[in-house]
Amino acid sequence: MIEIRNLSKAFGSQPVLHDVSLTLQTGTLHGLVGANGAGKTTLLHCLYGLHADYQGTVVETTGLPIRAHTGLLPYEPYFYPRLTGREYLEFTLQARGRAVGDFNGWNQLLELPLDQYAEEYSAGMKKKLALLALLVQPFRYLILDEPFNGLDLNANLLLMEILRRLRGQGVGILLTSHLLGSLTELCDELTVLADGTVRRRYTAADFGHVQADLLDEFYQEKLAQVHRLLPAEGQV
Ligand SMILES: Nc1ncnc2c1ncn2[C@@H]1O[C@H](COP(=O)(O)OP(=O)(O)OP(=O)(O)O)[C@@H](O)[C@H]1O
Fold it and tell me: Which parts of the sequence belong to the ABC transporter domain (predicted)?
């Protein structure tokens, strides 16, 4: 299990995360939701060790080094110029000292032109390639920042099934998404981040309340403003 305890992080004088605690168990899917700027990506980066200048602790409770056993899907995957999709996959495997195998089985699902330069892929294809680079490796944990964003409908459905299978094999998966329906369909627990703090936690039994809670707590005032700006017919 990965345990984040009392994590706080600032960028310069700007506090972004305050006293965040969260656990990621193996064999579970944990969704992280929150408004734009709530601090989700920053939290994932602290967890993966891309930011080291935070207060609090992030530990794998059996003592495993987190980065070595965790795959990260960044919000916006970046690829070096003049590297084909296939070369990128080979590079990611070699960088972790793994043998380069056959990608065809996985690529039958995602159907990428692996011999084309990755930087010339569309946004959705780039997301697929970054996912493929994780799927061809064995990880104990996966951290996925907006994995559904940009994927076509088929790929979204496939990814949901793949994530369920990985969970079944014991992988612990932490993912962010703005698609509440996908998260509640998939996850075992949800954490709501607001202004850099954990506002709520839900287990699957309580998912029926999530949407209403979010509307009540965060959006009621905004909905009223929409109604003021766009009055219903007859109220103009
Ligand atoms: N490198 C940085 N330097 C300064 N401020 C940053 C940096 N990265 C993020 N921030 C700030 O930290 C806050 C949280 O950003 P973060 O990207 O973690 O939000 P998020 O919840 O992932 O948002 P989104 O849903 O839009 O992806 C924002 O106010 C953002 O401007």
Answer: 2-220
What DSSP assignment string belongs to 117-177?
BGGGS-HHHHHHHHHHHHHTS--SEEEEESTTTT--HHHHHHHHHHHHHHHHTT-EEEEE-
Map residue 224 onto helix, strand or coil: helix
Atom of ligand 1 nearest to the CA of 43: 18
pLDDT at site 236:
62
* CB distance 107 to ligand 1 below 6 Å: no
Regarding the beta carbon of 196 and ligand 1, being less than 6 Å apart is answered: no
Q: Write the residue with the smallest CA distance to atom 1 of ligand 1.
A: 11
Q: Enter the ipTM.
A: 0.97
Q: Which of the following CATH numbers is that of domain 2-77+139-227: 3.40.50.620, 3.30.70.120, 3.30.420.40, 3.40.50.300?
A: 3.40.50.300
- Helix %, strand %, coil % for the chain, to 5? 40, 25, 35
Q: Give residue 213's pLDDT.
A: 82
Burial class (CB in 10 A: 0-12, 13-18, 19+), 20: buried
